[in-house]
Design brief:
- By secondary structure, this protein is mostly beta strands.
- It contains 2 helices and 13 strands.
- The protein is about 10% helix and about 55% strand.
- An 8-stranded antiparallel beta barrel has the order 2-3-4-8-7-5-11-12.
- The longest helix has 12 residues.
- The N and C termini lie far apart (about 55 Å).
Length: about 200
């Protein structure tokens, strides 16, 4: 029988982030707020989804030291209307896959890097309309001059997704292309807090 999660994206992903945090004492959890992207889906085109992400990194670093973003994880959720279209009308009731998510840096180098992620298979229902990702390895930056280093979830990105078809039990490959949804005011895509640099 399929395991089903009946948690909202925020609560469920918070549990994912807590569960993957590093045990080291001198480490901080860095997280985004909920961010809205437009992502492409089979049969319905680009649709808004909400995402959150987080990683574990050092409490503080000296200029020139490494900032290693590890235990990268998060989730992406579809709206009730999109769930109705995908799962009820079109018969796509599950998702799995992999890909890369861009992280951009301020006062750290390189200015951008990609975090590899895997998406374990999950089956949707009306309560669980999200899928979750975890990093395949750490992403390392070098701290810039004294001050603070900041990181944000970049755009655009794409994921190599497979959607499960309820009708015949097969998985259909799909490239999910996502761009940051334009809003007024603009969205805050930074991980919080910033990393102090001495």
């Amino acid at each position: 029988m399929r395991a089903r999660r009946a948690l909202t994206l925020t609560v469920a992903t918070a549990a994912v982030l807590i569960g993957t945090s590093a045990p080291a004492a001198a480490a901080t959890d860095y997280r985004t707020s909920t961010i809205t992207y437009n992502c492409t889906f089979p049969g319905v085109g680009a649709q808004p989804v909400t995402a959150v992400a987080g990683f574990t990194g050092p409490d503080a670093v000296a200029s020139g030291e490494a900032i290693t973003a590890g235990f990268f994880s998060g989730g992406i959720a579809v709206s009730p209307d999109l769930y109705q279209l995908m799962a009820v009308s079109l018969g796509y009731d599950g998702v799995r896959g992999s890909g890369t998510l861009p992280i951009t840096a301020v006062n750290a180098f390189p200015a951008a890097a990609n975090a590899g992620v895997v998406i374990p298979a999950v089956f949707w229902d009306s309560f669980n309309r999200a899928f979750y990702f975890s990093g395949t390895g750490p992403v390392t930056f070098t701290a810039g001059p004294p001050g603070a280093a900041s990181f944000r979830l970049g755009t655009p990105f794409s994921l190599a997704i497979e959607f499960h078809r309820r009708q015949n039990g097969t998985w259909m490959p799909w490239t999910m292309a996502c761009t940051l949804r334009v809003t007024t005011p603009g969205q805050y895509t930074y991980f919080s807090p910033s990393v102090p640099v001495s």
